Amino acid sequence: MRILSKLVFIAALIAAAPVAFAQGTGAGKITVEQPWARATPAGAMTGAAYMTLANKAKTADRLTGASSDVAAKVQIHEMKVVNGVMQMREVAGGLAIPAGGSVTLKPGSYHVMLMGLKKPLVAGQSFPLTLTFAKAGTISVTVPVQAMGATGGGGMSGMGGMQPGKSGGMGKMEMK
Amino acid sequence: MRTRHWVITAVSGVAGFAVAALAIFFVAGAPHIGHVGVASIGGPFTLVDDTGKPVSDKTLAGKPYAIYFGYTYCPEVCPTTLFDLTRWIKKLGPDADKLNYVFVTVDPERDTPKLMHAYLASFDKRIRGFTGTPAQIAKIAGEYRVYYKKVPSSDGSYTMDHSSMIYLMDADERFDSLIAYQEKDASAVAKLKNLASQAPTS
Predict the structure, then answer these.
(1) Phi, psi angles (nearest 5°) of residue B110
(2) Of A49, A108, A138, B67, which one has the greatest count of Cβ atoms within 10 A?
(3) Residue A89 CA: distances (Å) to CA of A43, A92, A109, A130, A143
(4) Chain A contact for B150, CB < 8 A?
(5) pLDDT, tens digit (0-9, with 9 covering 90-100), for A80-115
(6) Is the torsion defined by CA of A97, A100, A106, A108 positive or negative?
(7) Does the distance separating the beta carbons of A46 and B154 come in below 8 Å?
(8) In chain B, what residues touch A70 (CB-CB under 8 Å)?
(9) Which among A40, A79, A90 has CB closest to B154?
């Protein structure tokens, strides 16, 4: 109990919540860092989750799918703005994660698309997400929901220098 | 040897010309716009708003307006844009009421007035939602040079590709300027302030 509270305290201090407490067959080979999602408007049927996937294995892997209690269907999508036109596509065959490398899912790029939301994603709350990898199997993580317009705190500002309260779904989220 | 050289030069010249011509064709023919004549954007429309009331271009007449095309099933760009717009409206202060704000769906099949109304409750109350029949949406999108396209997804549903900028129109429904996706606050607010300054004094 004391160790647990200590851990929570340390995690809060670091604030970047570097590695989610992950479970599943894939835990260990693939790490899911800083998962987060944006709050969705009322009535919205879709949402997006973001994170960094790091592959510690010596072989490449692929994120092939995902599921969550909060959505009827979950897909891996890529978003881009090309000449002012927003384009979104399902990532065919899954998202590759190079051996010893990592891929960051973030706004304006790859995201885990939650389709058929059963209720809005509310800032300050969190939801479960299970990711399926071609080789590593499944990993389940808890995704904290940040404010609408949040940029995730993590991936964007690089290593270190994280400010408490700006990331990881802990504490108050700032709007930009 | 020399002849061969000439042939290569000629061929690459022709190829280069073709590429240039294609580039011009695509840039000129592209569905979105960087600089467009004032007269060519906007036009009459008939739609319904998010309370189910019929609306037309006359509904917006008399005030300059910001008009944005998107859809509620959009996971990122549309909520972000409406969220940004909400913040800019707040920053405008009293000037905000000199403008109209409209979110037009490019996905009329799913975006009912009721859904748009619920969705827009998460943003500034002054942003109104417009929807209509697919034909009515096609008409207004054409007038505003908005590109949109349905993209089927593997599960039988679909997403929409669509233009991501906000159009600023003056009180006489003439094109003023664009706000790009995720434009900086200072620049976007300056454009909106400038637009508000053109509002006819009542």
Answers:
(1) -100, -30
(2) A49
(3) 23, 8, 10, 21, 23
(4) no
(5) 999 899 999 999 899 999 999 999 999 999 999 999
(6) negative
(7) no
(8) none
(9) A90
Q: What range does the domain containing B144 cover? A: 38-197
How many C-beta atoms lie closer than 10 Å to residue B142's C-beta? 12
Name the residue among B75, B153, B154 with its Cβ closest to that of A48. B75
**ipTM value:** 0.75
Report residue A123 CA to chain centroid gap.
14
Best of B76, B163, B184 to substitute, by most chain A Cβ atoms within 10 angstroms, is B76
Chain B residues closer than 8 Å to A115 by CB: 155, 157
* B86 within domain boundaries: yes
- What's the predicted TM-score (pTM) here? 0.77
Distance from CA of B120 to the nearest CA of A (A): 7
Q: Does domain A18-149 have CATH number 3.40.50.620?
A: no
Q: List, for residues B34-72, the tens digit of each pLDDT value.
A: 444 555 899 999 999 999 999 999 999 889 999 999 999
